[in-house]
Structure formats: structure tokens, C-alpha cells
């Protein structure tokens, strides 16, 4: 390597001395007087110090003559390290730069570590996605803190039940009338459906929107299977049909080759049904007419029952009267018969007595009559006789 003495160094031009001093102070920075480039701000102070040393004391440059052999030559790093500035300010500056570099490394490491850690809650299912390589992992993660390449993210789906409220919706019944309804249904995501759902819908938002539209389509299809009248008296059957069609839309049918939307239906509730006003009025009028008819029929039955009751009562009363009259007639007949028998018996006894008198007294019929007349007159307390002519009161001559 060529060396230069102090006398030779003194003969160098000011431009060359400044250039060599700049290269020694900052070998990393490139300085070109021809292109007019500036010295980096971070090394400006060190460069100025070296220039002043060369200008004020050219004899000290003899130690560094290996770096000034040529304007185009570059310094050896080993020589630069051995010939480094050992002043207090330079040492302090190098320490500051060292600590700054170490702090920067620590901050970068912490930032990379922070960017490499992602958390997945226990209520969610996640799949790791490398945003730099555009690569999707097929492992399903849940409930933990996971490490991955810096800057990656998780595509997450909730693992709990998801509720969808379809309020103030309208569908068309089987007979072509508009029916307002409100439906609430629940569905969920399974671990087996996460990866296919991401491939088809990219993220949770688009998947949830697709599931909601599929559920609404299933409900509209169910409405078209029933008439308006059935919405009044078959609400439970309609709800079951809606839930069955919802499962078919969300889960698909492998037998029929129908694909779902990678969701599992849980339940469905038909919370509100409102029929058209015209239909409600027609139904109200029909119900009123049916109620009037039913009332008339009930009144007819009531009046018929009342008349039947009165007729039965009259029949019972007439039968009672008939039975009473018959009983009284039988009593009278019995009494008359007994009275007749009594009179007949009395007459028989009296006839027998008269016969005994007649036979005992040896009387004729006229004598018996005279006997009876005398006996009758004898038994009467007061006797009043009215006659038109004198009566023959004594039958003495005839006895």
C-alpha cells in the first residue's frame, strides 16, 4: 500500500484532503464533489470535525495515510475500526447509536410478535388466513391465543346460535292473496361447515346475508302451500312446514342433490300473521251471518223445545185429569153400586119382613099397604097432607 508523508500530504489540494477526511469519518456515505451530493445529516458533525483536524494540524494525517493514497480508493473496515475517533463525544455518539439500534430491534421484535399473535374467543370458530401469501389454512381454531406469520388474520364465525328476525314481511298465499307475517328463526355454524363457507362466501357477513335470504325464500315457499283460510286455523301446521323448508334450504338435501348454505337450522317461530283487510271484512261478515244462522237455529230449537215441553205438560195434565175423572167415576160407580146393593138389600129385607107380616097376619096385599101407611103415619112427627078431596083415611073396613 502506498504511503504519504507530511510534506506530500501538505501538497494535496484542499479538495482531496476534504474528500479523504469525509471518507474516513463516514465510509458508508458516498460523497461526490463532481455531482454536488451532500453529506448525510447523521454524519455531518463527524465529517466537519475531521475536516477541521486536517485543516488545523496536517501532521496528524500521517496516521491515516493509508486511507488517502488515492481519491478513488475506499478505506479498509479494519483500518477504520483501529483508526476510529476515540474522543468523548464520538464515543458517546456511538453508544447512543448502539442503544438506538438495540431499542429499534426490540421494538421491531415486539411488533412482529404482536402481529403474530391472534386470539379466537370460545364463542367463535376461526380459520387462519395469510394475507401476504393469500393462503388459507384448513384447521379450525377456537378458544385460545394462536401464533402465525406476521400480519395474518383469522376469518371468524360465531359458534353460538344466531337469531334472525323477519318482521313486517309479505308473502303470497296459495289463493293469490297477500299475507303479512313475522318470523324468527335460529341457526348455527358447525366446525365442518366453516372451511367450505369461507371458500364460497369469503367471510361471515356475506355468509350470514346469504343464510337470511335462503331462510326468507323457504318461508315464501311455505306460504304458497296454504290458502288464506288455513292461516287462521292451521297456524301450527304452517309453522312446522316453514321449519322443514328452512332446514332443507340451509342444510341441503344430499339425496336430491341440493346444496345448502353451510348452516344448520335450529328452530323457527311464526310470531305474527295479518290477513288482508278485505278478506277480514268478508270473513267477519260471513262469521256474523253464520252466527245469526246459528242463533236462529238455536232459537228454533229453543222454541221447539219449549213447545214440546208445553205439549208434554198439557198431555200430562190431560192425562192427569183423565185419570182423576176415571178414578172419580170409578169411585162414584162403586159408591152407586154399593148404594144400590144397600137399597136392594134393604128392600129385600123389608120385602122379607112384609112377607113375614103378611104371612104371619094372614093379610092381603091391600092389607099390607094399609099396614105400611099406618106405620108411616105413626113414625112421622109432623104430617101435612094436601088433597083435593077428602081422602079415605081409614081402612078399617078393609082390614
TrEMBL record:
Keywords: Coiled coil, Membrane, Transmembrane, Transmembrane helix. The keyword Transmembrane helix applies. Residues 119-303 form the Band domain. The chain crosses the membrane at residues 96-117. Residues 279-335 form a coiled coil. It holds the Pfam family Band_7. InterPro entries: Band_7 (IPR001107), Band_7/SPFH_dom_sf (IPR036013). It comes from the Eukaryota. This is Band 7 domain-containing protein. The lineage of its organism: Eukaryota, Sar, Stramenopiles, Ochrophyta, Bacillariophyta.
